[in-house]
Model the fold of this input.
Amino acid sequence: MCVSSHRWNQFEAEFGQDNSRKLYIEVFTKNDIELFVRETLERDPGYQGMMEDEGNPIDLLQEIVNASQGVFLWVFLVVRSLLSGITEGDQLVHVLKKPNSLPKDVEEYFKHVLENDIDLKVTRSTFLTCFS
Done:
């Protein structure tokens, strides 16, 4: 048995033709991710205010869920980054673009943050929270 949090070409090439030999984790985690994102965003006063003034929360929620590919750590990091941006005064148009502008791979996400010096304070605290 091979298990991965992403669809890897090697696995798809070897096992992808036979649906009885594969499971896609994102199918099983989608509802949990959606619930986490919705509840986390709805508890944030900055997000609530932005949605009352400008936005459609369904769009942002679905953007995050669809972009996540079933990876909870990525979702956690992106939601924290979005909330930090909202607190810092990001406009809705930037908030809506963020989930698709960030690397989907967690390692690439951290590399992107470190190379671009963005969300560094949030990411450091998140890293310490996740791995301590």
